[in-house]
């Protein structure tokens, strides 16, 4: 019976997300044959009228109503099914699951959660239901419960993500008590040693002098644990945190030695073009333009087409040369627009963003972010 439930709630072939999460409005594979939704609704309504025992058709009709925003009609269909005498448990579980999705679409979060819980009691621990419960808990900022659901789903990346979110909550709510924060971060790194979110939070706390280890040591450990293709996120987060400090970290003369230690760590990764690029940015923020130029030139030796380094070298050249005013104005305009290019891209769906993301806003895949080394990406 449990195997039947598993198949009943699994997405139809060809419609799954890269992240393994359910997709579409009809997880049982009940896609209408007609592309005209309204025509499909009319046709299914006629069939249901002639055959009131066709439960699958009722479920499909409710999902079509939901897709058109007619939530009350969708809810009415599910409730009628759930109350039907003698309804088989698997159909009741499916109707409760779809009812939860109807309520969620209508913004009735509490009712959605209750419906999913009832579906879970009927169907057992089903991934599709657990996924919906995890999302609802995450949206309600119940991070610990969301993490528990992701344990069930076997997703340590997501579990660590919400443990870090809980650590951030603890830090805001109890700023004088860092014990719970440390426990959450340690748990996150235990379940997912390469958790970018956890290492970024430790880096941020180091800047606030809330970590025992120095910044360079934390960064060194993080670079060893985080996957090579995601290391750039650590440096991006570091620079953003430094800029957001009040006053900005780079304006504090007492931090120069600390930054030198960070650059020594980055120098050990001389073949990583992105880490060399971020090393150059750190030097730029310190006002060490000559040294920054050397790091950006290293980038071009490693990857001649690496456009961000070329932009920074062009900006440095503008500072050192006297050009006709008309040419200088055009170049400054070009640089300002070029820096607005969205640097980050989802490796699954191609969504481009100007800031770091851990879950793709479009396809919901985890840690699919990459740096756009080529503008054609």
Outline:
The chain is mainly α and 377 residues long. It has helices at 2-9, 37-50, 55-67, 71-82, 89-105, 109-123, 127-139, 143-152, 156-173, 179-191, 196-207, 215-225, 231-244, 256-267, 273-286, 289-302, 307-320, 325-338; strands spanning 344-346, 352-353, 369-371. It is built from 18 helices and three strands.
How would you sum up this structure, described in words?
This protein has helices at residues 2-9, 37-50, 55-67, 71-82, 89-105, 109-123, 127-139, 143-152, 156-173, 179-191, 196-207, 215-225, 231-244, 256-267, 273-286, 289-302, 307-320, 325-338, and strands at residues 344-346, 352-353, 369-371. With 377 residues, the chain is an all-alpha fold. The chain has a domain at 2-140: Serine Threonine Protein Phosphatase 5, Tetratricopeptide repeat (Alpha Horseshoe). It has a 3-stranded antiparallel sheet, with no helix packed on it. A hairpin with a 5-residue loop joins β1 (344-346) and β2 (352-353). α3 runs parallel beside α5 (89-105). The longest helix is centred in the middle third of the chain and has 18 residues, at 156-173. The radius of gyration is 26 Å and the shape is elongated.
């Amino acid at each position: 019976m449990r195997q039947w439930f598993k198949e009943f709630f699994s997405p139809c072939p060809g419609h799954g997300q890269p992240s393994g999460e359910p997709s579409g409005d009809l997880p049982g594979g009940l896609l209408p044959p007609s592309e005209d939704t309204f025509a499909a609704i009319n046709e299914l309504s006629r069939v249901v009228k002639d055959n009131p025992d066709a439960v699958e058709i009722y479920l499909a009709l409710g999902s079509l109503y939901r897709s058109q925003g007619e939530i009350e009609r969708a809810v009415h269909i599910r409730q009628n099914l759930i109350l039907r005498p003698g309804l088989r448990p698997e159909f009741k579980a499916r109707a409760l699951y779809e009812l939860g999705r109807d309520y969620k679409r209508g913004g009735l979060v509490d009712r959605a959660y209750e419906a999913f819980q009832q579906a879970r009691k009927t169907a057992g621990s089903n991934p599709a239901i657990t996924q919906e419960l995890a999302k609802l808990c995450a949206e309600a900022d119940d991070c610990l419960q969301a993490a528990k659901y992701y344990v069930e789903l076997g997703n340590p990346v997501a579990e660590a993500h919400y443990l870090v979110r809980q650590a951030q909550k603890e830090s805001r709510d109890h700023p004088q008590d860092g014990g719970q924060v440390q426990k959450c971060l340690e748990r996150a790194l235990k379940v997912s040693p390469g958790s970018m979110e956890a290492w970024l939070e430790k880096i941020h706390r180091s800047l606030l002098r809330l970590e025992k280890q120095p910044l360079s040591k934390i960064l060194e450990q993080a670079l060893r644990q985080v996957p090579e293709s995601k290391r750039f996120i650590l440096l991006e987060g570091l620079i953003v945190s430094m800029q957001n400090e009040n006053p900005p970290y780079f304006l504090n003369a007492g931090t120069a030695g600390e930054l030198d230690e960070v650059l020594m760590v980055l120098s050990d990764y001389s073949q990583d073009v992105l880490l060399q690029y971020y090393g150059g940015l750190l030097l730029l923020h310190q006002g060490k333009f000559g040294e920054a130029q050397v790091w950006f030139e290293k980038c071009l030796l490693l990857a001649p087409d690496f456009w961000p380094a070329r932009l920074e070298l062009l900006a440095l050249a503008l500072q050192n040369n006297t050009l006709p005013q008309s040419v200088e104005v055009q170049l400054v305009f070009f640089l300002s627009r070029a820096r607005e290019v969205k640097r980050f891209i989802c490796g699954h769906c191609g969504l481009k963003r100007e800031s770091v993301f851990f879950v793709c806003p479009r396809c919901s895949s985890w840690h699919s972010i990459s740096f756009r080394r080529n503008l054609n990406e």
